[in-house]
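User: I've been going back and forth on whether these two constructs are worth ordering. Before I decide, could you fold them both?

Assistant: Sure. I'll take them in the order you sent them. The first construct and its structure tokens:
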Amino acid sequence: MLRSAGSALRPFLSPNDLHNLEAPLSGFPNLSFNNALESVRKLHSAGIPILAGTDAMNPGTAYGASLHRELELLTQAGLTSVQALAAATSVPARVFGLEGRGVIAPGAKADLVLVSGDPTSDIRATRQIVG
């Protein structure tokens, strides 16, 4: 149903989000980190586009650092490093109809981040920003 509707998922994997879901008064006692990872894995396997993002406006969610952690958590959920990077770049651009964004290509608009290491093989390299 989600796939046929053209839906995408921005999971709540950041630790702050999961802590709020597991709070005693949340009304969601069966939610856990492992359940969240498994849900993302199943949806991704079913072909549902996964988007990386954080609830950066929530108290306790650090801009930048939270996105790096979200990418790492997406790989824990079964996405490859390349797929996690796409979840933060080309997939959202495609889902939101932003042609010429989220890709490195002639004529495309881009903001590039240079890192030490290869984030396509180890997503943690996104934390090693050099320029």
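The second construct, handled the same way:
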Amino acid sequence: PAWTEIFGVLSVATIKFEMLSTAPQSQLFLALADSSISTKGTKSGTFVMYNCARLATLFESYKCSMEQGLYPTFPPVSSLDFSLLHDEGEWLLLFNSILPFPDLLSRTAVLDCTAPGLHIAVRTEMICKFLVQLSMDFSSYYNREPRPHLFGQMFVRLQLLRAVREVLHTGLAMLGLPPLSHI
């Protein structure tokens, strides 16, 4: 992909993310000339998009290695031994992000039946905060020291990261943002 296209998507996504991460009752200040504004760090949409691209690269790398015969094809999920997930970072991703995600989605758009007509309160800032925390947890997990693994453990970890990728993509889609595949 062309770098200008990637930068265009990233710029739009960053601005949208920053706007959508502001609670509706809070004021949003846009100071374009302010040199102290930074999208660096772990609390920004850029960080979320960066981790989305890291996941895409990880799965693309696995796919290429599989096509070269270095790795076997991914087995059915039902045949995976999830008891191999014993690292604290793996459990953190599972119990703090993947499993609670459907509940978060049900809490982000609430139908207000007290007023006449249809009124829906949408809490996009909850999704943004969740995606930032997921990105921080994933980044901590991904940045640890590489460890030797057996294929069984590799497949279970890849399945866990598939779920992380699905949550990230769904959360970004809820915000109207496309996931990045390269960065």
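Notes on the second construct follow. The longest strand covers residues 109-112. Helices lie at 3-20, 45-67, 88-98, 101-108, 124-142, 151-174.
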